[in-house]
Amino acid sequence: MFALTACAVLSGATSLLAVGEWIADAPGYVLEQVGADLDPLLPRRVLPAETTVRRLLARIDGDALDLAVGSWLADRRPKASGLRALAVDGKSLRGAAKATGRKIHLLVALEHATGLVLAQLDVGEKTNEITCFQPLLGTVADLADVVVTSDAMHTQREHADYLLARGAHYIVIVKGNQKKLRRQLKFLPWKDIPLQGRTRGTGHGRSGIRRIKVATVNSLLFPGARQAVQIKRRRNDHKTGKTTVKTVYAVTSLTAEQGTAAQLAELVRCHWKIEALHHVRDTTFAEDASQLRTGNAPRAMAA
Q: Boundaries of each Transposase IS4-like domain copy (predicted)?
């Protein structure tokens, strides 16, 4: 039944009613491939009704389902060359909610190279993304030598300690929630550090240039920090004619030998692939438009 539901969603079904209709009309070869049972009396396969699908998804253990899906994908993902990286970020399902009215907020770990979601966790009502960071990555079997990227919310010393203890690395953006660290980064002698990379990009009516400088460090106020990163972004909006310049700071546990300036720039840039995932889930799979309220069905449909 789960396989049929997944096929229905991948085929464009964005509601349980649509899932039920798709299953009822599913091609025979699909039913055979997913192992739908044959009716012992009639020359047809036994298919679940929409009400059956609804009841099952409402009762399913969402954590167990996310773990099973993540493990299944991890076992089948293509092996990527170079640095392996996971992006961690949160995603709210604006339309769907629990029966209590609480909106569902998920924390997701997405592999940079493949775009696969290898872990997903419901951020409960009495917790937040920060406290769910370690439990989320705890469901990923092997983090050795994996680089975890995240936004400034997850620039937390406890997160860094956890990743280092598991043999992983990090590169994190530093903003106002780490004021002393950001001050340290801001006052490094960047003027004396040569430019180590420049990239150009265009899209969505904008063009931009990113310049990166990297410095080896050993006394920053952050566990395991080995390199400091400064990225200057200059963006031109062709519709408004407005030009903006923004300076971003980051730190990483990767040494200069483990992560070059070009690789660090790519890690930061590719972290935002997770935003593209959110966009696909919102537009293609209509997650934000979902009005599901029953049991764990909203969570199950997001798996």
A: 82-299
Please report the sign of the dihedral spanned by the C-alpha atoms of residue 75, residue 271, residue 196, residue 163: negative
Q: Closest by alpha carbon to 69, among 32, 117, 105, 131?
A: 117
Strands 85-97 and 103-111: antiparallel
The 10s digit of each residue's pLDDT in 113-136 is 888 889 999 898 778 999 999 999
The neighbouring-strand residues paired with 237 are 206
Cα–Cα distances in angstroms (integers) from residue 92 to residues 16, 122, 280, 297, in the given order: 20, 10, 14, 15
Mean pLDDT (whole number) for 272-281: 65
Report the alpha-carbon distance of residue 118 to residue 86 in Å, rounded: 9
Q: What average pLDDT score do residues 140-160 get? A: 95
Is 58 within 8 Å of 297 (Cβ atoms)?
A: yes
DSSP structure class, residue 15: S
Contact between 186 and 208 under an 8 Å Cβ cutoff? The reply is no
Please give the DSSP secondary-structure letter assigned to residue 195: P
Spatial strand order of the sheet with 169-174 comes to: 117-122, 103-111, 85-97, 147-150, 169-174, 243-252, 227-237, 206-216, 197-203
Phi, psi of 143 (to 5 degrees): -110, 5
Candidates 155, 156, 168; CA nearest to 253 is: 168
User: CA of 188: how far to CAs of 56, 181, 195, in Å?
Assistant: 57, 11, 14
